[in-house]
Amino acid sequence: MNQAVRCLILILVLVYPAMLRAQFAEQPRPLDAVDLERYAGTWYELARIPNRFQNDCAGAATATYRLRDDGRIDVINRCLEDDGTLNEIEGVARLDKKGGARLEVSFFSILGWRPIWADYWILHLDEDYQTSVVGEGSRKYGWILSRTPTVADERLVELFDALRAQGYDPDAFALVQGTGLGAPDVGDGG
Prior knowledge:
Elements: H1 3-25, H2 36-39, E1 41-48, E2 61-67, E3 73-80, E4 86-95, E5 102-106, E6 118-125, E7 131-135, E8 142-146, H3 153-165, E9 174-175
Antiparallel strand pairs: 1-2, 1-8, 1-9, 2-3, 3-4, 4-5, 5-6, 6-7, 7-8
């Protein structure tokens, strides 16, 4: 092997692990723990990164979490479509084996078998469990949630700061608080 090839291999061997570490170090950091009993209940969407599975939602959605006896969590996501039709999907969440406030959620089942699970990481949560920032490793998806359909502007700024601290671009988020199922005259859809 000539000297240039050896040098290139040596550089790759030394640099590649550092590149991998940097890639994983840049992922958002889920909280160390979450009390699922306190997290359960209904959350209103305040902002989200637009995504294909919420394209039909005309405004804010709600997410309701109910603990099950088997340790999993029933998930019901609801939103209103443009024509006022209630769009609802049910799924299941479970704690990720990696620990911390990492959950996985599935909305697809074949006779009870769930082959597809997506990351649901709780990145920020106030101590009263009233507001939450949720995302996942690639930052392709993200949500700001609240127990109420709207929050004060100052609180919203703090939540966007929490997103920024996790490496998210706040400009990628669509503000939906107070619309859709979060509108004062609509409620949480039942």
